[in-house]
C-alpha cells in the first residue's frame, strides 16, 4: 500500500513539475508530457549509475594507494523502488494519453 501511495505522489509531483515547465515555455502540457517523463526517468537512471560509479572509483583508488580492501567493484544494477515505479507508471500513462490525443479518429 505504501508503495502505491509513494508512486501516486511521484506521479502528481511529476505532473505539476511538467505543467509548470510547460507554462514557462508557453506550450501545452500534452506536447511535453511523454518526453518530459522520459527525461525525468533518465535523470533518475543517471543519478543511480553515477552513485555506483563514484563508489567504485573511491574503492579502487583506496585499494590502489593503500592496499586496503574497501569493498571492491560492484556491478551497476538499476533498483526499482516506489519512486522509480511511479516514474515508469507516469511514462506509461503519458504514452497512452499522447497516443489518444494525437490519433485522428
TrEMBL record:
Transmembrane segment boundaries: 6-25, 32-48, 83-103
Domain of life, per lineage: Bacteria
Alphabetical keyword list: Membrane, Transmembrane, Transmembrane helix
Protein's recorded name: DUF3899 domain-containing protein
Species, as recorded: Pontibacillus yanchengensis
Amino acid at each position: 500500500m505504501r508503495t502505491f501511495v509513494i508512486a501516486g505522489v511521484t506521479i502528481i509531483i511529476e505532473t505539476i513539475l511538467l505543467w509548470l515547465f510547460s507554462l514557462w515555455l508557453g506550450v501545452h502540457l500534452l506536447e511535453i508530457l511523454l518526453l518530459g517523463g522520459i527525461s525525468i526517468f533518465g535523470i533518475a537512471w543517471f543519478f543511480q549509475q553515477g552513485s555506483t560509479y563514484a563508489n567504485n572509483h573511491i574503492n579502487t583508488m583506496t585499494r590502489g594507494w593503500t592496499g586496503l580492501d574497501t569493498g571492491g567493484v560492484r556491478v551497476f544494477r538499476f533498483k526499482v523502488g516506489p519512486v522509480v515505479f511511479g516514474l515508469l507508471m507516469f511514462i506509461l500513462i503519458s504514452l497512452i494519453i499522447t497516443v489518444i490525443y494525437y490519433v485522428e479518429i
